[in-house]
Amino acid sequence: ELWRASFNTSVTIELVRDIFRGSRSSNPKYLTVYNRRAYFTADDGEHGVELWSTDGTAYGTKLVTDIRSGLASSSPHFLTPFNNRLYFVAKQDAGRSTLVPRATQLWSTDGITTSKVYDHTESLFDVDFNALDAAWPPRLGSLGTEALFFPARRGGTPVIGGVSRGYARGSGLVPSTQAFAVYDADEYDELSLQLNIEPPESGTLTLTQLAGARIVKGDGTLDPHLMLRGSMLQINNALAHLLFSAKSGFNGLATIRASIADTCENYQNTSCANSMEAISNVFIRQINEPPTITITSLSDNPIIYFTDPDLTETSFGIDPRSGKTIFPRVLVNLTAEPGLISLSRTAGLSFLQGDGVLDKVQVFEATIEDANRAVARLRYSSSSSSSSAEDRIYVSINDNGYSGATGPKEASAILNITTST
After folding, report:
1. What are the residues facing 331 on neighbouring strands?
2. How would you label 389-413 residue by residue, b for 16+ Cβ within 10 Å and e otherwise?
3. Are 84 and 78 in contact, with CB atoms under 8 Å apart?
């Protein structure tokens, strides 16, 4: 429940009000001071999770508004004082399109009247709660009295401009995902948006449509850095077509950092330019790709070559015990029919079957580099008595699934050998 600590000559702690009467909790959250009152979200057991405010007394603690009537919760989040009102995001069922992920909208209140900020456009958007919850404090980004910033997904509707059966009006597009959305109170100002990927080797950005925005840096195709200029509407429409592509071999956290600047070209005050920054995190989990086998037949001395970009391009770190770089090991199986095989060398190999010299079956583990050295000049000894016989070597390699999701992958090949006596 909501408690109060008073600091006078001593500290006094007392319950403000038992909002959810009885043993259950109202779970107050997002406490924010606005206009000499504390605003927060709570559940009183009758109205669901809604917006409340208090002056510090039980009598002065009250429900501000019941956005979703009854027990349903509008779940207000990210309470942010801005421009003499308190802004927050909340859910509402009314008018929701089946193509919109959530009926999440931007609301504001002065403590008496509460309304949707975009009610005149009927605009719905899916706020990125994960990004906002990861920030501290958990609020919308405000910049003086000029602008509010929030990460959101475009879903099936535009942030600005209205909806038509869940689609962006006039776009003809199916619903997509939007990582960033920009709002500027000066709607027609020229904005400059810069997008940077950190680290740059983690991925690239591609804009499939510019929607009137201009590219200042990069070319819009597989860029680690991009800079756009245009109006708020042009930039938001361009951001709806922003694609992130992970680079091969990268595994871990990638950050897309967006910086927006208001050039305020419509004003004579040259010091009015403002800027704001937001980030969107992408965790990349590498998908394991199968290895490959290349065979060149040279009579009795074939060349076998193994490749696996997952193993060669991915860093597996340092062994804390030895202090040496970790190199994953592959499992190689060589089976001769009907002859015997000998390896070029056996250094670095751990044999599970055979010993590398005149074996019918050889199974060993090694790094892919040592495995390639071992089979670089494989020697085959035929046991066939015919003057011209076709023998076989069955080759397989298993990558043991070191490099990512989906488990171990295997490749196999058959080497046909024609021997003459």
Report:
1. 365, 398
2. bebebebbbbbbebbbeeeebebee
3. no
CA–CA dist 248, 55 (Å, integer) = 56
Radius of gyration in angstroms for the set of CA atoms belonging to the chain, rounded to a whole number: 32
pLDDT (tens digit, 9 = 90+) per residue, 287-317?
A: 777 889 998 765 556 688 999 877 665 566 6
Distance CA 335, CA 391 (A): 11
* Alpha carbon separation from 279 to 128, 131, 154 (Å, rounded): 11, 8, 16
Three-state SS string over 65-126 comes to: ECCCCCCCCCCCEEEEEECCEEEEEEECCCCCCCCCCCCEEEEEECCCCEEECCCCCCCCCE
Nearest to 235 by CA among 283, 180, 287, 197: 180
Taking phi over 0 as left and psi of -120 to 50 as alpha, with beta for the rest, 376 belongs to alpha
| Pairwise CA distance, residues 4 & 302, whole Å | 82
Average pLDDT taken over every residue of the chain: 77
Phi-psi sector, 164: left (phi>0), alpha (psi -120 to 50), beta: beta
What does the pLDDT average to over 61-81? 87
Report the percentage of the chain scoring pLDDT > 70.
72
Measure CA of the first residue to CA of the last residue in the chain; give whole Å. 93
Average the pLDDT over 60-84 and give the result: 87
Strands (E), 135-241: 141-143, 147-149, 152-153, 163-164, 167-168, 191-198, 203-207, 214-217, 225-230
What's the gap between Cα 9 and its chain centre? 51
C-alpha distances (whole Å) from 205 to each of 159, 219, 239, 393 are: 21, 10, 11, 46
Could you give the CA distance from residue 175 to residue 160 in angstroms, rounded to a whole number? 15
